[in-house]
Design brief:
44% strand; elongated; 419 residues; 6 helices; Rossmann fold; alpha+beta; single chain; Porin; Immunoglobulin-like
């Protein structure tokens, strides 16, 4: 009879110990995002990086993690004489986490280039000294950036929870099996950390491939061979001189896998513009676009020549030479989108030549107050349709058109060869 209470107590002790371990909260350090850009930190960039950090803290605390106070790791940096900018290096981040008795450390960086923001987040498991989760995002300044931050945190938090739990489980097995034999330990490590070869297939020869902020290779011979764990999701950044960078996600699923990634979109600096204006039957225009903000803002000069051919043997043709200077700005969709739209404005003059002896040169000057254009955007060329609200403003005494808006506006369509 005395053995029963002993067995009951033993069972309760084991149960309490088991459930107590399950409820242990993982301690996390979240370092400040490091500015890796050329420009100095501003108030808006400080707000941005604080938003990232606050959302991470809130999300992790909701998942049962404990966030360690910033003063703890800041004191360690001072004591160990470590520059906070070096915390983007995984080994230093893990070292500081170990000294602070943290289970998890999270570091990151951001770069601001004009109105684009590139930021990366990396999560390390301190116990195993391994990278658990990494992600890289690109966004535009404005309200859309808030959405991007929320989406990023929503993706990262579950990944951190799953990966840290997985790594902790692997670590526990290794630690316990060390006592048995070294061969058993090595077998388990190989099984849990086994990598496979993955070939990233790309048509962009010479493009550089980054995982987080670290370069992992260059596309040569149509691809890049890397190693990764089965089931992992990699956020890659592909860059190449003269092309727009592209962020792409690949998921590693099978052995010796070849994963194609979308091609990069070449930056457009110039474009040859060919245009036809509706109702000007015998005519054609040619011009040149210069994109001073590549693929987004351009100035255009265009010369449109057309003729009016009268009926009858005594009819004299009239020739018109329309010279226009325009500035355009894209408003909808990115540079690699199949369809784009924007607005334009400009001014110009029409030189009217009458094939009648001693006829003066008539010049009509005008403003294109508002233009709307819609484009079908392809890799090397584009097709467009444009409407212009035109206001005639005579400057010269000899002119044909009267002052005021042209009824129904001016409609044109054309094509641009880009380079």
């Amino acid at each position: 009879m005395k053995k029963i209470p002993v067995l009951v107590l033993l069972f309760l002790s084991i149960a309490v110990n088991f459930f107590g371990q399950e409820q242990i909260s993982r301690k996390v350090i979240i370092f400040d995002l490091i500015n890796l850009g050329d420009s100095a930190e501003t108030d808006s960039s400080r707000v941005f990086k604080q938003a990232i950090k606050s959302n991470l803290e809130f999300g992790l605390e909701n998942q049962g993690f404990t966030i360690l106070d910033d003063s703890l790791w800041q004191n360690i940096l001072t004591r160990e004489k470590i520059d906070s900018n070096d915390l983007v290096q995984g080994d230093l981040a893990i070292k500081v986490g170990s000294l602070a008795s943290a289970d998890v450390v999270i570091s990151g960086f951001y770069k601001i280039n004009q109105n684009r923001i590139l930021f990366g987040i990396k999560c390390y498991d301190v116990f195993s000294g391994s990278l658990a989760v990494s992600t890289l995002k690109v966004g535009r300044a404005g309200l859309s950036l808030t959405t991007l931050i929320n989406e990023t945190i929503s993706e990262v938090i579950p990944q951190i929870k799953a990966e840290i739990a997985s790594m902790t489980a692997v670590g526990d097995k290794i630690e316990k099996e060390v006592i048995i034999t070294e061969s058993v330990q090595m077998t388990k490590v190989t099984e849990m950390g086994e990598t496979i070869k993955v070939r990233i297939k790309s048509v962009d020869e010479g493009a550089e491939v980054y995982l987080a902020d670290e370069k992992i290779g260059t596309i040569t011979g149509g691809g890049l061979l890397i190693k990764s764990k089965i089931g992992s999701t990699l956020q890659l950044l592909i860059t190449k001189e003269g092309y727009h960078s592209r962020e792409t996600e690949i998921k590693v699923q099978d052995r010796d896998l070849e994963i194609p990634i979308p091609p990069l979109f070449r930056k457009t600096t110039m474009a040859l513009d060919l245009r036809y204006t509706i109702l000007q039957f015998v005519g054609l225009g040619a011009g040149l676009r210069y994109y001073f903000i590549k693929d987004w803002t351009f100035v255009s000069g265009l010369n449109y020549f057309y003729a009016q051919i009268g009926e009858g043997p005594e009819a004299n043709p009239v020739f018109h030479n329309d010279v226009t200077l325009t500035i355009g700005q894209y408003l909808l969709f990115n540079e690699d989108s199949a369809f784009r739209a924007g607005v334009s404005a400009g001014f110009g003059g029409i030189f009217n030549f009458f094939t009648v002896p001693e006829a003066p040169l008539y010049i009509d000057t005008y403003f294109d107050v508002l233009g709307l254009f819609f484009e079908w955007n392809l890799k090397d060329f584009l097709l467009y349709y444009q409407f212009s609200l035109r206001y005639v403003a005579p400057v010269f005494e000899d002119h044909i058109q009267e002052k005021g808006y042209i009824k129904n506006g001016v409609f044109s369509f054309g094509a641009c060869l880009k380079w």
